[in-house]
Amino acid sequence: MSTDPIWERSRNDEPDVPLAENIAPGTANDPDAGATESATVTVDGQRVETETGATLLDACQAVETRGDVLALCSYDDSQKIGPRSECRTCVVETERHGVVPSCSFPPRDGMTVYTDTERASEARDVNLDLLLSNHNLLCTTCGKNGRCELQDVSIENDVIEPRYGVMHDRSELEPLDDSSPFIQIDRNKCILCNRCVEACNDVQVEGVLRMEGSAEDTRIGFQNGAETMMESTCVSCGHCATVCPTGALLEQGLVDATTLPVPGFTHKNSAEGIVDGEYDHQPTQRTPMKSELETQNEPRVNERFTTTGDDRS
Amino acid sequence: MVDERIIGETPAVRVATGSENHHDGRELLHEANESETSVTTAEVGSVGHIDLEPLVVATVEGKTAFFSRPSTERMETITRTLGEGTVPTDGAVAVVEHDPETARLPTPETGPLGTGVRRVLGGCGWLAPTSIEEYTDVRGERFTDRAEDDPESVRTHVMTSDLRGRGRGDASGDASVAAEWTTVYETADDPVVVVNGNEPDEHADSDRLLLESAPLLVVDVALASAVALGATDVVIYTNETEQIARERTRKAAAALDDVTDTEIPIRIITGPDEYKAGEPTMALEAIEGNHRIEARRRPPGPNEHGVDGRPTLVHTPRTFAQLGQILNGTGPVGASADPGTRLVTVVNDDTTAATVELSTDATLEAALSAVEPDSGWSGACVGGVFGGLTRSLDVPASASGLRSARLGTNGVVELLDKSTCMVALAGERATFAKEMNCGRCVPCREGSKQLVDLLHRVYDGEYKDGRLRELVRIMRTTSLCGFGRDAARPVTTAIEEFETEFTAHAKGHCPTGICNRS
Ligand code: SF4
Ligand code: SF4
Ligand code: SF4
Ligand code: FES
């Protein structure tokens, strides 16, 4: 009987991206989504041919669907990002499998899909409202106002009054991280779509951002354990802010680009506390941490389970 | 003479304990060894009735007496009497006559020990858990050897069977094991076999029982499965606290490795002691060593993209034990659409618990004599922490039977008496879901929060049953993994079966009185 760790015998011969072995994004080792072969499916009565790698969402987007398949967390500008398939606002109904998230479900030959059944629309409505229930919905002081994907789908879905309300108790709000001169983080606007984490780790291979915590405490954090953006190993490439669908990650220059021109009415005072930054001591685009320290990634090793992990509680 | 072959020895005394009573069992065994040297003694695993344990099993020539939790003085008397060649019967909970060479725990017709059948549990509490000699003798042929001789026959046996998975930790869920095997086998690329023994549900004891009392059976079938599927790794995954299960499984694996020559390494990997970590894809994450455990998106499932992206067969110890029955070809039992047996832990009032085996065509009622409840129970939660609430146990123990009664299949029957408030119980389970989920998907992470909130509002006089039903429906149908889908069940069934309690609470009245806020 052997006691070597299993990964030493892993036969996965694909070379890793440089640095990738140190990257610990805290997210699951998902399989590739999408079909392994081309298929012909029927969406709301219309025939659609799909290619290898396509998802049901691709099929739905190829035709005029009867229901609005919102698909908030999906991102199709980069192969390396998503589908995270967490928001479940892209649900459609299939004859064989019941309701499924279209953004990650593979089309199979002969599949029949409906976008406007009661079960599918109800699921999209409820899941969107669930997202809003945990959202600090103050568009007028938000830097994403007018170019926000959450706002867009809410309008598209005719949300008037979300059934579970919105996050309104100011004491529940997380302080705004304004410590970096380049990127501001407002976790009260975050929908945990993971795009920023993938942009940072899989596209830029910087290994700065990660998903951390669980249940209600799930949040975007830093792989070096830092509490603020300024203490992280961020190189200010801005990719995370580019992919973020909401006002959770904003380039500093755009923070108040869209707020109402009323004195004292800013993105900053939409949250309860602010982690401020002194920008003078940052000589380059790299945060001080990036220059001074090696990345202190948490290793993907099993010994973690013989000791107590930090963020498994 | 601990841990050696015991079967057929006479006179013999076995001390059966699970991890719960292990220390007391050791003391009794010590006492037996001290007081009489002519009696063979052995530490065996639990028989499933932890409340009767340590259970002393005293045998002479095909006659066995059972003693529940004897004092050390009584233990001395028992051993002395055995030394004289007689079975002591004074104070025994049962006395049974049997074939002296039987490989199954001889049990009485009635009473707790006589509850259910003992097919996969046969050796539990009777065979020395880690004695490979005894195991081999009893079987005649090990499953692994058979798979090495003829892997195809093993595959055919499994792939033509109607067996369904057992337990929430099984990647096939309640569905076809044959389909799972076929996908793993047909996906080229170095398969892995995982024994998912991480079941931290506080009442679901079946996997622990098998790993503590019959680890050789589980490991042998898992290794045979690996051989049959051409797998190159076997991983046994348990939670941190299951030390005895892990130690015995380790010994069993080492012993099997010594006598077979599969060259398939068997590794024991521990994961966190958290309910979610037993979910099959979170098990994969823990096995790969991820520091944060969340569910994986599927399809494709573990059978195509498992450990390190390799096709992986994930079964629970319960499923492997059933596979052993299929391979034995001992004849079909149970319901035809879900053949075999189901292990069920019956919990009465949080004070007594016993794990018994029911044929899938028996009803859950048949398990009740294991804990001898008085007539006071008025409902039950079936299926573990995310089980379904019901008033009746006249429900078949098969997957389809449990499903159509909207109950859970994870092998737990918690009896609830008149003092249990179903609204409070549903709230407790919703809170568990809210606090223990992995955080990945919206219907579970945000849904469980709103669920707790909607239940709180019942106490404020607002019972929005439409909203509640809508929410649990969405959690059940759109959550990413089994955690969120199952988490909806306690509330769904509570509303269906006990709705008057909800309306009463909304009027400020708790029928049991326990929610009345002062
Ligand atoms: S992120 Fe900003 S703009 Fe978008 S919905 Fe939220 S508050 Fe409105
Ligand atoms: S910060 Fe933006 S990109 Fe990152 S998870 Fe949150 S919403 Fe998604
Ligand atoms: S259902 Fe719950 S436990 Fe499963 S992925 Fe979603 S949040 Fe995580
Ligand atoms: S877009 Fe499919 S789950 Fe979010």
Keywords:
heterodimer, A: about 325 residues, alpha+beta, two-stranded parallel ribbon, about 15% helix, about 10% strand, disordered N terminus, disordered C terminus, B: about 525 residues, alpha/beta, 5-stranded mixed beta sheet, globular, binds iron/sulfur cluster, binds FE2/S2 (inorganic) cluster
Structural account:
The complex is a heterodimer of chains A (313) and B (518). Chain A has 313 residues and is of the alpha+beta class. Chain A contains 6 helices and 11 strands. In chain A, strands 2-1-5-3-4 form a 5-stranded mixed sheet. A two-stranded parallel sheet of chain A has the order 6-11. Chain A has a two-stranded antiparallel ribbon with strand order 7-10. In chain A, a hairpin with a 2-residue loop joins strand 1 (39-43) and strand 2 (46-50). In chain B, strands 2-1-3-4-5 form a 5-stranded mixed sheet, with helices on one face. Chain B has helices at residues 22-35, 72-83, 132-139, 143-149, 151-159, 177-186, 206-213, 215-229, 243-259, 280-288, 317-328, 399-404, 422-436, 442-459, 465-478, 482-487, 489-497, 499-506, and strands at 12-16, 40-44, 55-60, 63-68, 94-97, 192-196, 233-239, 266-271, 312-315, 334-335, 338-339, 341-348, 352-359, 377-382, 388-390, 412-417. In chain B, a hairpin with a 3-residue loop joins strand 12 (341-348) and strand 13. The model of chain B has no long low-confidence stretch (mean pLDDT 94). Classes of the chains: A alpha+beta (313), B alpha/beta (518). Chains A and B meet through strand 4, helix 2 and strand 8 of A and helix 9, strand 8, helix 10, helix 13 and helix 14 of B. The structure holds iron/sulfur cluster (SF4) (3 copies) and FE2/S2 (inorganic) cluster. One iron/sulfur cluster (SF4) is lined by residues 190-196, 220, 243-246, 248-249 of chain A.
